[in-house]
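Form 7-S
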Amino acid sequence: MCEKRNHHGASRLVALAGVFSLLALGSTQVLSGQDGNKSCNDGTIKGTYGIQMQGSRPAGPGATETVIGVVLRTFDGRGGFEQVDNIKGSVSGITLDRSGEGTYEVAADCSGVTQFQPDPENPGIVIEEKFVIVNRGDELRSITTSPPPLMVTSTGKRVRGH
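Output:
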């Protein structure tokens, strides 16, 4: 009788493991932004996104500051974007309604990269972000990868009717 019970318990464990594996595979598709066999491209994120960002950045020689901000970014569906941001540093204060533009590229796996110059008068600084597309293109998650002193993450949501 004990042997049957152990065999029965093992069968349940295997069945549960199978269910969790299927759930994990399904979650991966949703998290990557994909629907079935469809893949992403530059057009996947065409439109305007409201973005909230936070992190830290250099604030002068040997100093670092906490930074927060909101961005309204419009992707053209062809690899270019325009944005207006409002950024506040704990040391530097606030910069309101700063316009900017840049480029982006979306890979088939729904990951991507943006590059832009935050200050046209200082062309040596290019900010690069790596992002993932989630929720079928309605949301973006990103980190700043360059320049190295910037430690910023952001979350963006598609703005409907904009």
